[in-house]
Write a structure and sequence with these properties.
This protein is an all-alpha fold and 288 residues long. It contains twelve helices and no strands. The chain has helices spanning 3-32, 39-46, 50-78, 80-99, 104-118, 121-132, 138-167, 170-190, 201-208, 210-215, 228-259, 263-287.
Length: 288
């Protein structure tokens, strides 16, 4: 093969992997918003308070946060691809659990399953990108990964509130969310060769450096906790996630309460916020 043909083949492989990871990551952020757009409907049916509904969000993020810290070790041990498939399977189960919930504990189960599914995404996604994508396109892969997350956030309120409004059933919306995750899982399984973190452009290069790496003194798995930059990044993302989750979960019902707007309109506010966030990522990437 000529160098041009090799370059074109590598581009196709990189684009395929980046696109698949972007789709998977978008589904992860979509399931952040499985329940929050439905809060007004849940209040109407079950009479829950916003404190009770806020606890559902807390359960999601506690399981997701603790699980994310542990998932990196699981990915290192068993590989990123099976962990990614497991995560998407949890989303399917979360959608089904929410659609069949008969009370608060059923919704709590759905939130827990969604949090468990969300937990491994960053360790799994970044491992696959680093192992499969060529170095010169890795930045593009990370950009698509970030933007697709915002697009998942933007899609969920319109999808969930829209289906609920159209069908008159929030359960149908949750079931459709689970079916969407099942479809994405099927796409990932069908294209599983592009997600194999044991092979690929970067994985081959890493294998060549194995002898040199073996000679280096092994570090403790928790050695990264000594780095100040790790704690600064943790603090930044902790507080930004806190503020963002409030906007995602309560902006729509708050606007409905304050101004009497229909949920089909207030859900667009969160969608617009997330779309602007995605646009900001694109602009920021070029400025950086």
């Amino acid at each position: 093969m000529t160098s041009i043909n090799i370059s074109a083949a590598t581009l196709r492989q990189d684009a395929r992997t980046i696109g698949l990871i972007g789709l998977a990551h978008g589904s992860s952020h979509f399931f952040h918003m499985l329940l929050p757009p439905l809060f007004p409907f849940l209040i109407a049916e079950f009479g829950f308070s916003y404190s009770e509904l806020g606890l559902l969000v807390s359960v999601f993020f506690v399981i997701s946060g603790v699980g994310q810290a542990l998932s990196g070790f699981v990915v290192d041990r068993v590989g990123a691809r099976p962990v990614l498939f497991f995560a998407l399977g949890c989303f399917v189960a979360a959608g089904i659990a929410a659609s069949t919930a008969s009370g608060y504990m059923g919704l709590m189960l759905a939130a827990a399953l969604a949090g468990l599914g969300n937990a491994p995404f960053h360790p799994a996604d970044f491992t696959i990108l680093n192992k499969r994508v060529s170095a010169q396109r890795l930045g593009h892969g990370f950009s698509v990964h970030g933007i697709s997350g915002n697009l998942g956030w933007a899609t969920a309120p319109v999808f969930m509130a829209g289906i609920t409004t159209a069908t008159g059933s929030w359960r149908t919306a949750c079931l459709c969310g689970g079916l969407l995750a099942l479809l994405i899982l099927a796409v990932m399984v069908w294209n599983r060769d592009a997600l194999d973190d044991r092979q690929g452009a970067a994985a081959a290069g890493a294998a060549g450096k194995g002898a040199g790496a073996a000679a280096a003194a092994p570090e403790h798995p928790m050695a990264f906790l000594k780095l100040p930059s790790v704690w600064l990044c943790f603090s930044f993302f902790f507080w930004t996630t806190c503020s963002l989750s409030v906007i995602q979960s309560f902006a729509s019902p708050t606007l409905q309460k304050m101004y009497g707007l229909p949920l089909s309109i207030t859900s667009m506010v969160v969608t617009g916020y997330m779309l602007c966030g995605a646009a900001g990522m694109v602009v920021g990437g070029f400025l950086a």
